[in-house]
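Page 47, continued from p. 46.
Same chain as before, 89 aa.
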Amino acid sequence: MIFKHALRNSLIPVITYAGPQIAYIITGSMVIETIFTIGGLGSKFVSAINNRDYTMIMATTIFLATLMVIANLICDLLYKAVDPRIKLD
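Result:
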């Protein structure tokens, strides 16, 4: 009984923190890729900066910004699933 009522109210701050944090982890992996020379989006981004490839820089930035927006959208949708008192307008 307590878990039903307490868990519903306590999950809201957890979702608020965890949603964008997952996107930060994915975008922060670019630094790790560059430091440890692991192939991926991060190394391509850094090489695009060094080569002044503006198209690749803009594409990577737009991709990561879209990732952040999607993570926040998923958080907002999870709010409604966890607590039905929240209205999505």
